[in-house]
Amino acid sequence: VEGLMNKVGGKTTVVKSGQMKDAGSPFRGMSEEEKQLFQKIIDEHYEKFLKVVAARKENGPSLEEIRKLTDGRVYTAEQALELGLVDKVGYFQTALDEVLSRAGLKEARVVAYTYYPKRQNNLYATSLAGTEFMSEPVEKIVSGLKSGFYYLWLPAL
C-alpha cells in the first residue's frame, strides 16, 4: 500500500501511544525491529504446534520429521493422515462420537454458548448488516455453503 500511496500522492498520519502501536501497518515498510517481533511470535506458535502434533501419539512421526513436513505447504486431510500428522479424518459428528466413546457415554447434549457483540461499522461488517445471516451460528451458515475455500473473519477480536 505504501508504494500506491506514494504514486497517487496519498499520505497517512499516525497518532499513537507507543513505538510499536502501528507495527505491521500496510502504509509503510516494516522496520527490522517489527520483523523480529512478528517472527518471534510466529516461531513460538510454530514450536507449540510441533510439540502438540509430536506428543499426540507414540507411533507418530518424530519432532524432527514433523518439522520437515511443516514447511508452510497445505495438506489435504487425507495427505495429513497418510503422513501421520493427524489421527483421523472426520467432521464434527466424528469428533463427538470419539469423545462419547472415550468418556464411556452413549449420548450427550452439545451446548454452544454464543455471544454476539455489537457489530463495528467497517467494510466487512456492513456488507451484510441487518440481515439474518449475521446472527446465525457458524454451523448453520456453513451447512448451506458449497464446497470450496473460505475464511472466517471475526471483527470483534
Summarize the SSE layout with pairings.
Elements: H1 2-8, H2 32-55, H3 63-69, H4 77-83, H5 92-103, H6 123-126, H7 138-143
Kindly list the characteristics that best describe this protein.
single chain, mainly alpha, 43% helix, 157 residues
Shape, principal axes of CA atoms = extended
Structural class, judged by helices and strands? Answer: mainly alpha
Q: Indicate the low-confidence ranges by residue numbers.
A: none
Proportion of helical residues: 40-55%
Helices, by number, come to 7
Gyration radius, rounded: 22 Å
User: How much beta, percentage-wise?
Assistant: under 5%
Question: Quick one: biggest sheet?
Answer: none
Mean pLDDT across the residues is: 81
Distance between the termini: 24 Å
Query: What's the total count of β strands?
Result: 0
- Order of secondary-structure elements: HHHHHHH
